[in-house]
UniProtKB/TrEMBL annotation:
Keywords: Flavoprotein, FMN. It comes from Thalassotalea loyana. Residues 4-156 form the Flavodoxin-like domain. This is Flavodoxin. InterPro entries: Flavodoxin/NO_synth, Flavoprotein-like_sf, FMN_Rdtase-like_dom. Pfam families: FMN_red. It comes from the Bacteria.
Length: 187
């Protein structure tokens, strides 16, 4: 059984909805299990992420998909606290060769969400992970998936807290793709 973790932070629920859609995409692939993990405020004590069981649960997965809302042009402070808590894992390169991908959402069409994805990619590469993007060229897809055209990760946009249906479909696709990449490596 392949395992794909989706770890994310969300306050008003839009990143959470994308995570759920990604999960359904992962689970649509045979012999693949999705693990949905939410970073919560209570995991952070005096500015440090302290949830060891979350870090442990990531040790046995084949892939990790990272998600955060775009806050002030990057990941949220809560997501960054989680990232900073992985320093020891980085020293050991414990996550090396796991598949990775990322997703974000912002309330502006071009609210610097790309910087969030680029941060997630750098974070994954620091861990020796293998980054997977979105292989759908924007504007060319008959289903209009990847409507915002980012290929380094899933970028979504919501001005009012409601999810765009096409963004959710793209999220499901990202989950499928990561599961398929894992299956290729496993083979
Ligand atoms: C402190 C703060 C900073 C934000 N910064 C940005 C930003 O830089 N770009 C953007 O497009 N949206 C920005 N937003 C909007 C959020 O990204 C957006 O509301 C997102 O859907 C929230 O995700 P959530 O529902 O998972 O909490 C910001 C929101 C907050 C509260």
């Amino acid at each position: 059984m392949l395992k794909v973790a989706i770890i994310f932070h969300s306050v008003t629920g839009t990143t959470n909805s994308l995570a759920q859609a990604i999960k359904s995409g992962v689970e649509s692939q045979k012999d693949t299990e999705a693990l949905l993990i939410e970073i919560k405020g209570e995991d952070i004590i005096e500015g440090r992420f302290r949830n060891e069981s979350i870090l442990e649960s990531l040790s046995s997965v084949n892939a990790v998909i990272f998600g955060s809302p775009t806050y002030m042009g990057c990941v949220s402070a809560q997501f960054k606290a989680f990232a900073d808590a992985t320093g020891e894992l980085w020293e050991q390169q414990s996550w090396a060769n796991k598949v990775a991908a990322g997703f974000t959402i912002g309330s502006n069409f071009s609210g610097d969400q790309l910087n969030t994805i680029q941060y997630l990619q750098i974070f994954a590469n620091q861990h020796g992970m293998l980054w997977t993007g979105v292989d759908i060229p924007g504007n060319c897809d008959p289903e209009q998936r990847n409507r915002l055209g980012a290929q380094s990760g899933l970028i979504a946009h919501s001005p009012d807290g409601k999810l765009n249906e096409t963004d959710l479909i793209t999220a499901t696709y990202l989950g499928q793709r990561v599961a398929q990449v894992c299956a290729r490596f496993a083979a």
